[in-house]
Protein 1
Amino acid sequence: MSPSTTYTRTRTALLGATLALAVTLPAVAACGSGSSTGSGPTTPTTPAQASPTPAAPVKVTVDETEFKITLSQSSFRPGSYEFAVTNSGKFPHNVVINGPGVDKQKIPAGTPLTAGQAGAGTVTLQSGSYEIYCGVPGHKAKGMDLTIQVS
């Protein structure tokens, strides 16, 4: 075999190996990394869905005097409400809320507010009618009683 024949066969073998490698590498690269820079089909990546953040309660101020309850709003929609109660009167007072899903919840919980004190509580209101009154004995009968509609 002449040196030129050996050279030609070696060159042909190298060319064949190079072509085989050129064909194989893109296929291997496409299988491994999980990311694609080519123009082939890809699977869209979506961010993790966060659970919705609950809305903050709507603040309703409640002023109590002898013998009246005054709310800062008269229109209510279903949702969470923070009732911020101030006793502007001379006698102890509290607020009791009773209606759908709320069973005589006292605000503030525990003992009534003395003159000048304030307290708060959060209540979730559903559609329907709610009674709001002072839970101190005798005060409801003296006019510390009102009804709100939630719709």
Note: The CA atoms of residues 43 and 49 lie 17 Å apart.
Protein 2
Amino acid sequence: MDFVQPPSDPDEWTDEKWLAWLKATDDLASDELDESISEVVMRIVQSTPGLVIGQAMLGMAQAIYGRQKDEIVIVVEGNGESADDEPFAVRLDFDHPERSLVEFKRG
């Protein structure tokens, strides 16, 4: 069986012939590549069409789901008290984090 070109009418081959052709051509494609798959993907992503499509996809996501609001979270380990020499005072409310405060001292 010649695996170089498939027939012009796909119905001429059985499923087994198609599977055999696909398996035979899998080896050919990987041998012909000079660069890795990740290099090919990066080249496509960084190209102008890749950038345009990426931005279009982000725009569609924002149109469908709305803008994602970035949540600003600052985590500081401590006992809830700040030293006197610090330029700020921290008051943490562990039961109600939204009531926690950071006050900056004028100096």
Note: The longest strand covers residues 88-91.
